[in-house]
Design a protein that fits this description.
The complex is a heterodimer of chains A (about 190) and B (about 450).
Chain A lengths: L11 H29 L3 E6 L2 E6 L32 H4 L6 E5 L4 E4 L7 E2 L4 E7 L2 E6 L4 E6 L6 E2 L4 E6 L8 H9 L1
Chain B lengths: L3 E4 L3 H14 L2 E7 L6 H5 L2 E6 L10 H10 L4 E3 L9 H9 L3 E2 L4 H8 L1 H10 L14 H11 L3 E5 L9 E3 L2 H19 L4 E5 L5 E9 L5 E13 L2 E7 L6 H17 L4 E9 L5 E7 L6 H8 L3 H9 L16 E8 L1 E2 L5 E2 L2 E2 L2 E3 L6 E5 L6 E2 L6 E9 L2 H14 L1 E3 L5 H7 L3 H4 L7 H5 L1 H10 L1
Parallel strand pairs in B: 1-2, 1-4, 2-3, 4-5
Antiparallel strand pairs in B: 6-7, 6-8, 9-10, 9-12, 10-11, 11-14, 12-13, 14-21, 15-16, 17-20, 18-22, 19-21
Helix pairs in contact in B: 4-5, 7-8, 13-16
The chains are: A alpha+beta (about 190), B alpha+beta (about 450).
C-alpha cells in the first residue's frame, strides 16, 4: 500500500485503530470479497474505505487456500477421554490418485442443491447453498476440478463445517495422461 | 408444550440443562462451537449440532445460527443458559417469531427488565430502594458530568451485562476517562451492546441476591437469598445461603419485598434481584438477572426445588405448582466456583489439558462440571471449569464438608483457583461472616493466600 505512511510513523492510538481495522476487514470484508470474486468471475476486486484499500486478486490457475483443513463430520458420541479421529490428510491420502478436497458448509441450516456430480468447477465456484433462515450462503469449491460427490439430500439439515461435496482436482498436465484419466473415472 | 429443546450454551450449564431435560422427559440437542466438539455436554448428548467456529460472535452469540440449528434439528424451544444470548430481548423475539419457545421471560418482559438503568427506576417505583446512579452514558464529557453528580467513587457498569464483565470502580475523573473505552469494548465483546451507566460505589458492602420464580399467571414465590460477597474484580467466586450477615427477619423481609415488587412490575420466569447491603444492613436494589444463574445450585440445595426444570415449565406455560409456604429453607449451602485461573498470578485465566481429575463426593456434596480427565480447556471462553456445592445442617457443618470436599478435589494439568477456596475456609473474615465484596481485591489474592499458609 504505497499511499500509507511507514508503520513506524504511526502513534499508539493509530496502531490500535489500524489493528482494529485490519481485524474488521479480515472478519467481515475479506470472506465477502472472496465470495464476490469467485461468483462474479472477475480477476481482481478492490475496495476503498477511509485510509485503507484492500485488493483481492485471483491468481491464474490457483484456488484460494482452505481456511479449515479438518473434517467436520466426526462421530458425535464418544466416551469422555476417547481421542477423536485425526483429520484425514487429503493431499497425502490421494497420493495414488488425483487430489480430492471437500467443500464445507459455511453455516448451520437447510441444504439446497446446486451443481450435479460431474460438473467442472473453478475454486470459489458455488456448488450448492445452505439456507440460514432464508439467506442462501454459498458452499464453494475449494479447488479447480470436478464435483465427484454431493452428500446431503435436498432439505437436509447440515451443520457448520459439514462436508457437503467432494471436488477432485484436474490431473496434472505433465502426469501420465491415460493413468490419470483412468483414476478420475474410477 | 415443550418436547425438544436446543441447548444454546456450553460448559457446565449446558450439561445442567441437559440433565434437567432428561429428568423432565424432554429431548435435548446441544448447539456447540467447533472449539467445544469434545466437551462433556456434546459427548453426553443424544444429539448435537455444530453452529459455528470458536469465536462466540459467530456461534453462541449468533442468533441466526442458533435459531437455524433449532429449526433443522426439529426443536420446539431454545434454552439460552446464562451469558451469551440469555437476556437478549431481540433474540427472544426472533425465537418466538420462528414459532419456537424461548426458555426465559418473553421478549417484552426481557425488554422491560434487561436494561439495568431502566429497571432500577421501574422497581424503585414498586418500592425497592436503589443506589444513586446515572442514566445511560453518552460521550466522555457527559459521562464525567454524570459522575460528578453521582459522586466518586463510582462503578462503571454495562447496561446489557452481568457477571462482572466490563465493570470498573473508579475514584476520579481521570480514571473514569481512562476506563470508559475499555469498559465499552469489554461490554461490546461480551454482550454485543456497549451502553454503560454509573452507580455510586458503596465501600465495604455485601452482595445479597434474592431468587424468585413467577409463572405466566402472576403467581410468584421467592426462594430465599444468596450471599455472593466473596468476589474478585466484581466476579463472584463463592456463594452461600443463608447470608451470614442478615437476621432471619431481615432475610424474610428483603425476599418478600423483592418478589412483591417484581410480580407487581410484571416479571415472569425465574430471576434474581441483586442488592448491595451496607454496614448498617440497608439493602439497595442494583439489578435483576432475567435468567438462570451460575450460583443457582445453592438455592436448589436449600429448597429442594429444581430451578432449571421450574424455568422450563414456566416457559412452557405451566403454572408454578407450589406456593410460598412450600419453599423450604433447610440448612446451609456453599458453592465454590472452580475456575481455570491462577490466584497467584492476578487470576490469569489458563487453558490446557486436564490430565487428572478427581471429583469429590459424599453426603451433601454436589459437583456440576463439564470437565473430565483428558479434556482440553479451550482458551476462547470464560474460565469456569465447574462448581463444587456443599450442604450442611448448619453453616459450620457446610464449611466442614467444604474443607473435606476441597481436599478431595484434584485437578492436574490446568492451574485452578482451588487454593483461594481452601484459604477462604481458614480465613477469619469468612468464618465470622464479615467478608465484603472488595476485601479480596484490597488485600490482594497473593497476600491472602500467604496469610492462610502462615495460619
Amino acid at each position: 500500500m504505497p499511499d500509507q505512511p511507514h508503520p513506524g510513523d504511526r502513534n499508539a492510538a493509530q496502531r490500535v485503530a489500524d489493528h482494529a481495522g485490519i481485524a474488521r476487514l479480515a472478519d467481515a470484508l475479506v470472506p465477502a470479497l472472496v465470495v464476490k470474486l469467485a461468483t462474479a468471475n472477475l480477476g481482481e476486486v478492490e475496495i476503498r474505505e477511509g485510509d485503507w484499500h484492500i485488493r483481492v486478486r485471483r491468481p491464474a490457475g490457483a484456488g484460494p487456500r482452505r481456511e479449515r483443513p479438518h473434517r467436520a463430520s466426526l462421530p458425535i458420541v464418544a466416551p469422555p477421554g476417547a481421542s477423536l479421529p485425526a483429520p484425514p490428510v487429503t493431499d497425502e491420502a490421494a497420493a495414488d490418485g488425483p487430489r480430492q478436497e471437500p467443500a464445507l458448509s459455511p453455516t448451520v441450516g437447510m441444504f439446497k442443491p446446486g451443481l450435479a456430480p460431474g460438473t467442472r468447477v473453478r475454486a470459489g465456484d458455488r456448488i450448492a447453498s445452505v439456507d440460514l433462515l432464508g439467506i442462501a450462503l454459498d458452499v464453494v469449491a475449494p479447488i479447480d476440478g470436478t464435483v465427484v460427490e454431493v452428500y446431503p439430500q435436498p432439505g437436509d439439515g447440515v451443520e457448520y463445517g459439514e462436508e457437503i461435496a467432494l471436488v477432485e482436482a484436474d490431473p496434472e498436465p505433465d502426469a501420465n495422461a491415460a493413468g490419470a484419466d483412468g483414476a478420475a473415472e474410477g | 408444550m415443550v418436547s425438544r429443546i436446543l441447548i444454546a450454551n456450553r460448559g457446565e450449564i449446558a450439561l445442567r440443562i441437559l440433565r434437567a431435560c432428561r429428568t423432565l422427559g424432554i429431548e435435548a440437542v446441544i448447539a456447540y462451537s467447533e472449539a467445544d466438539r469434545a466437551s462433556l455436554p456434546v459427548l453426553l448428548a443424544d444429539e448435537a449440532i455444530c453452529i459455528g467456529p470458536a469465536d462466540a460472535r459467530r456461534s453462541y452469540l449468533s442468533a441466526p445460527a442458533v435459531i437455524s440449528a433449532a429449526m433443522v434439528t426439529g426443536c420446539d424451544a431454545i434454552h439460552p443458559g446464562y451469558g451469551f444470548l440469555s437476556e437478549d430481548d431481540a433474540f427472544a423475539e426472533a425465537v418466538r417469531a420462528h414459532g419456537l419457545t424461548f426458555i426465559g421471560p418473553s421478549a417484552p418482559v426481557l425488554e422491560r427488565f434487561s436494561s439495568k438503568e431502566e429497571v432500577r427506576r421501574l422497581l424503585a417505583a414498586h418500592g425497592l430502594p436503589t443506589i444513586p446512579g446515572s442514566g445511560l452514558l453518552g460521550d466522555e464529557a457527559q459521562a464525567l458530568e454524570e459522575a460528578g453528580r453521582v459522586g466518586y467513587p463510582v462503578l462503571v457498569k454495562p447496561s446489557a451485562g452481568g457477571g462482572g464483565k466490563g465493570m470498573r470502580m473508579v475514584r476520579s475523573a481521570r480514571e473514569l476517562a481512562a476506563v470508559l473505552p475499555i469498559c465499552r469494548s469489554e461490554a461490546r465483546a461480551a454482550f454485543g451492546d456497549d451502553s454503560l451507566y454509573l452507580e455510586r460505589w458503596l465501600e465495604d458492602n455485601r452482595h445479597v441476591e434474592v431468587q424468585v420464580a413467577v409463572d405466566r399467571f402472576g403467581h410468584g414465590v421467592h426462594l430465599w437469598e444468596r450471599d455472593c460477597s466473596i468476589q474478585r474484580r466484581h466476579q463472584k467466586i463463592l456463594e452461600e445461603s443463608p447470608s451470614p450477615a442478615m437476621t432471619q427477619a431481615g432475610r424474610r423481609e428483603l425476599a418478600e419485598r423483592a418478589v412483591k415488587a417484581v410480580v407487581a412490575a410484571g416479571y415472569e420466569n425465574v430471576g434474581t434481584l441483586e442488592f448491595l447491603v451496607d454496614g448498617e444492613g440497608n439493602a439497595y436494589f442494583i439489578e435483576i438477572n432475567c435468567r438462570i444463574q451460575v450460583e443457582h445450585p445453592v438455592t436448589e440445595m436449600l429448597t429442594g426445588i429444581d430451578l432449571v426444570a421450574t424455568q422450563i415449565r414456566i416457559a412452557a406455560g405451566e403454572p408454578l405448582g407450589f406456593i410460598q409456604e412450600d419453599v423450604r429453607q433447610d440448612g446451609h449451602a456453599i458453592e465454590f466456583r472452580i475456575n481455570a485461573e491462577d490466584p497467584a498470578q492476578e487470576f490469569r485465566p489458563g487453558a490446557g489439558t486436564i490430565e487428572r481429575l478427581n471429583i469429590p463426593g459424599g453426603p451433601g456434596v454436589r459437583f456440576d462440571s463439564h470437565a473430565y480427565s483428558g479434556y482440553d480447556v479451550p482458551p476462547y471462553y470464560d474460565s469456569l471449569l465447574g462448581k463444587l456445592i456443599v450442604w450442611g445442617q448448619t453453616r459450620e457443618a457446610a464449611i466442614a464438608r467444604g474443607k473435606a470436599a476441597l481436599a478431595e478435589l484434584v485437578v492436574e494439568g490446568v492451574i485452578t483457583n482451588v487454593a483461594i477456596h481452601r484459604a477462604l475456609l481458614e480465613s477469619e473474615p469468612f468464618l465470622a461472616g464479615r467478608f465484603t465484596t472488595n476485601l479480596l481485591d484490597r488485600v490482594g489474592a497473593a497476600a491472602f493466600l500467604a496469610a492462610a499458609e502462615r495460619a
